[in-house]
Specification:
- By secondary structure, this protein is α+β, with helices and mostly antiparallel strands.
- It has one domain.
- The chain contains 3 helices and 5 strands.
- Strands 1-2-3-4-5 form a 5-stranded mixed sheet.
- 16% of the residues are buried.
């Protein structure tokens, strides 16, 4: 009996998580799902989870890049990840300024946490990380995984 009650509780929690996610996406208009971007100049690529516009904002047509996270703790490196995505969308010209940068943590209890990244220095941190990665690859200190 206890096992059935726990299963029913878990299913209700998962259903609430799904509903919570739908509530959040009701506030956004997605224009791209799983968009692969390539920055040939800086030699990196990635797949953006979502690109879209936020409804009910002062600037509703300002596009944003969002990375979905289904983890207990969102890494600080996420801000650099979404900066790289925004930079690639901006065609690799200077700091990414036209795209908002966000991560959406989807929690198992049905809640979510939105993080917005506004630090203009993130671009320079991102560029440094990419440069160090290329240095290590060229020097034989690292290898790309398949």
């Amino acid at each position: 009996m206890k096992a059935r009650a726990r299963l029913a509780e878990k299913q209700a929690s998962e259903a609430e998580a799904i509903l919570s996610t739908y509530r959040w996406f009701d506030l956004a208009e997605t224009i791209h799902n799983e968009l692969t971007v390539v920055n040939e100049r800086d030699r990196y690529a990635g797949t953006i989870d979502r690109v879209g516009y936020r409804r009910k904002l002062k600037e509703p047509k300002r596009p944003f890049v969002i990375d979905l996270k289904c983890v207990a703790l969102v890494s600080e490196a996420t801000r650099l990840q979404v900066t790289g995505y925004a930079h690639a969308l901006d065609h690799g010209v200077g700091p990414a300024r036209t795209h908002g940068r966000e991560s959406l943590q989807l929690r198992g209890d049905g809640t979510y946490r939105l993080r917005q990244y506004h630090d203009a220095m993130d671009f320079y941190d991102w560029a440094a990380v990419v440069r160090v990665a290329h240095f290590k690859l060229n020097a034989g200190m690292a290898q790309l995984e398949n």
